[in-house]
Amino acid sequence: MSNITEALDERLACLVALEEVAADGVKFTSGAPGPDERKDVNDILLNATKDMLGAKPDLEAFTYGPEQGCETFRKELASFLSQQYGDDVSSSNLMVTAGATQGLHLVLSILSESSAPILVEDPTYFLGLRIFQKDLEREVIPVSADEIGMDLDDLDKKLVSLKRPPKSDSVQDRYWAVIYLMTAFSNPSGLLYSPGKCERLSQLARKHDVLVVVDDVYNLLWYPSSTPSGKPCKAPPRLVSFDKQSDPDYGRGHVISVGTFSKYLAPGIRLGWLEAPDEILSKLYNSGLSNSGGSFNHYMSRLVTKALQSGSVTQHLASVRLQYKNRMDKMCDLLEKHLLEGCSYRKPEGGFYLWLQFPANIDTFEFAQFSAERYGVIFIPGVLASPSEECRNCARLSISAIDEAKIEVGVKELCMAFKDYIMM
Ligand SMILES: Cc1ncc(COP(=O)(O)O)c(C=O)c1O
Description:
Elements: H1 3-21, E1 26-27, H2 35-53, H3 71-85, E2 94-97, H4 100-111, E3 118-122, H5 126-135, E4 140-146, E5 149-150, H6 152-161, E6 178-181, H7 195-208, E7 211-215, E8 255-260, E9 272-275, H8 278-285, H9 288-291, H10 298-310, H11 312-338, E10 344-345, E11 353-357, H12 364-375, E12 377-378, E13 380-381, E14 394-398, H13 404-423
This protein binds pyridoxal-5'-phosphate.
The site of pyridoxal-5'-phosphate has 13 residues, from helix 4.
Domain Aminotransferase class I/classII large: 25-413
Protein name: Aminotransferase class I/classII large domain-containing protein
GO molecular function, one term: 2-aminoadipate transaminase activity
């Protein structure tokens, strides 16, 4: 195991131990919907189950499903996504997975060379790093990012400087390098890419013939505006919609979108999807892994079909969006009041995460121990999410699983902890 992987494992173990220490305190660490949202999901799935297994039971739900995933579900999902994005999503471009993580792993192992480096935003999704480095033993190349996303000039330079291997004879025609990122409400920094940036990223992927894998797991969690402009709010576009087949330099398709119901309903259902051009997708559902067992989550996809048809998923999303927005507003109002000089953040427009920057000399990994032990407040230290081991002065605060009362206590305690910490 490499030193980087060992260090990440050690830090994660340390974080788990600190979560225990702060068990009765305030945890800003969760990346999943909380107890209030789960109650609503219980009702949605109970009704869907009655519908599916009640008077006229759907016995097909108990079989192996088709490799690409149940067609009825894909059609429902396509219509749901089309409505959410205000864009045409086709069921033939969707494939069922057992969540974003499984989809990501499948894409990397089937579509990219086993030696393909993975270029990531710095900071990035910290558990993704373990998949890349520990499971797949890939080289991870950090690309610097600021508050508007990945530095695309740096990305271009890095891709130019990488040695592209001679074209392999592999029937799969795998990609020689991969870019992994989130363009909407990213984990950990809450970033949102502009359409112009998405356009350029898609062009760069074509120019270098690399695959961009986008973890589109938070896109539908945009915060409704408190000053309605009269225009209907829509989710920010997926990068995959910028890779248009009608473009003269389209090539073979260079973007794949990874989706999941983990953040919109519940992670326990392990239901997700991939969206990609036909040719790319067919390589995935014709893989050995897909052929042995068929759909990666057939039963649950049949069940969620019922929930989508009833409109309850759309309703649930509308309600959680508002809750998350209120929580984030609360957190930012409190930070505004209590945060010390030298600390800064950018208020996100959706999702779960706020990226808090402390003064450059602060090591938030060390501060997290102090804050958990003395104040019972815990967050994700920035270094965990940074393949370059930079971002040592940053912290990821999540609002996904705590109510506004806890946020109030937590932010005040965190700011007090910091005051004490710098006085030491
Ligand atoms: C960026 C990102 N990708 C993937 C996941 C996990 O998704 P899933 O539960 O669908 O595997 C998370 C959860 O925190 C995430 O933040």
